[in-house]
Amino acid sequence: MAKTIAFAGKGGTGKTTLAALTVRYLIEKTGRPILAVDADSNSCLNEALGVSVHTTIGKIREESLAAIRSSGGRPGGMSTEELFNYRVQQSIIEAKGFDLLVMGRPEGAGCYCAANNIIRKYTDMLSDDYPFVVIDNEAGMEHLSRRTTHKVDVLFIVSDCTVKGIKTAKRIVDLVAELALEIDQSVVIINRAKEDEGLIALAKEYGLTLAGEIPDDREIFDIDLKGGTVFDIPESSNCKKIGYSMFDTFIKI
Ligand SMILES: Nc1ncnc2c1ncn2[C@@H]1O[C@H](COP(=O)(O)OP(=O)(O)O)[C@@H](O)[C@H]1O
Ligand SMILES: [Mg+2]
After folding, report:
1. Measured in angstroms, how far is the CA atom of residue 44 from the centroid of ligand 2?
2. Which of 50, 153, 220, 229 ranks highest by number of CB atoms within 10 Å?
3. Architecture of the domain defined by 3-251
4. Cα(205)–Cα(228) distance, integer angstroms
5. What is the CA(221)–ligand 1 centre distance, in A?
6. Atom 15 in ligand 1: residue holding the nearest Cα
């Protein structure tokens, strides 16, 4: 069974950046197979990791449904499920040190729930084949209430340095408890931190488990802006050092 690390939190807080940095961390620390899952229909985890995406679960679903419709039920003699399993296997993007599965955006008026349920099912199935799974979730809490995030060892909830970010983190922690989700530990990271704004005190007041703060660093922003990846973040980066020490503490390889 894989050790699963997931990211949640308000939009724009750095979930994708930190999920990608976790993939790099695990590659460097373990050298073992990692499955990265982009479960945000709007996200670009692939870009942060420097790989291009040839297909997504959303696309496969639509193509499979079309194939089934046009073949009167059994395309190529396969059952719907067989066809789908086969296509999902084909859609896994193999990169150096990790594989990537992308949920994508259903085209047209498609429902996100279907693609979400599929990604959950396959993430669970594939968990048996990888010692580590890293999931980059969409912003907000729908993935939690729909129970698309589950069986997680560490849920990193990323906040920016605003009261709103911390309040969102608190709501996520409460929802995890309320829904009794299978999440072993929920940990808050305050990212893009500036000078002390009393947010650590607020997080403590809310009873949140805090990993600490990662500073707002122009270098991280610029790498992303110029189309770079987390592998371009230099060894000397303070953000990388702080991130890695948080991962050391909470991922516990
Ligand atoms: N510690 C940081 N310092 C400066 N910029 C950051 C930092 N972490 C992330 N960013 C930048 O913030 C923006 C949003 O990050 P992203 O990871 O896409 O957030 P999310 O996935 O939560 O929407 C990106 O431009 C990213 O480069
Ligand atoms: Mg993102």
Report:
1. 7
2. 220
3. 3-Layer(aba) Sandwich (3.40)
4. 38
5. 6
6. 14
